[in-house]
Description:
The protein is α+β, with helices and mostly antiparallel strands and 275 residues long. It has helices at 4-18, 39-46, 90-93, 124-132, 145-152, 159-163, 174-184, 197-216; strands at residues 23-28, 34-35, 51-57, 60-65, 70-74, 79-84, 96-102, 107-112, 118-122, 257-259, 267-269.
Amino acid sequence: MPELPETETIARDLDQDIGGSRIARVVVTRDDVLREIDAAGFTDRVAGTTIVRAWRRAKLIVIDLSSGDRIVVQPRFTGALLIDAGALPEEERRYSTLELVLGDGRSVHYRDIRRLGTVTLMSPARFAEYAGALGVEPLDPHFTAEHLSSLLRKTRQPIKKVLMDQRVVVGIGNIYANEALWRAEIDPSRAANSVRAEDVQRLRDEIVEVLTESIAHRGTSFRDYRDARGERGTFVERLKAYGHAGDPCARCGRRLIGTQAIDGRMTVLCVHCQS
């Protein structure tokens, strides 16, 4: 599932490449990805508008339109927004669920192989309501160790599960929760309210660092993730925990273990380094 670095990369590409473009036509081929609106309503409200900017909130890609509406895309597992200047591979095009045809002849496809992602058209008031239920942005200056500590003190749930709760901290999924906890040398199963102040500071710093590094490498591609230009992210080459169960720990050399006991997702950790 695209997490913060991947959706940030897509949003930046879209903003740079199609910001200011007029949407001449809308083609909806798979309306089951739409939420809160039908295909006719989406087409009527989007066609003829201009893309003001594209940006990210949590794991969402947000496209602001000149009408005031916002296209809000949650890619989930296999979703991607791909810019097509006429060379988009057919294997990508055939999974297009909707297409924004731009005035200059290019298109933006929302490609979703499994169609588990969603596309919603929201008014400013609806978006404010929706975004208001989300947690703090980890790359925001307000995300300090003190703020994180105050969030962790409220629960005894495993620290990894708390980090992945979008009502608490947004944008962190399984990949970056594993990586940040490995870097901070914290056991993913430890009760959140038991994490010491010095460990919270280190965890906060490692969260920010791993997300920032991944953005610089345009995200992590295992299978389906592509940026808006159709390219793969290269941060997968720098992962130390996620995807490395059974491999030697890059810090101590002991074997990393993989378990689904914490939150039903694959957790990879070093039982020697992480406590």
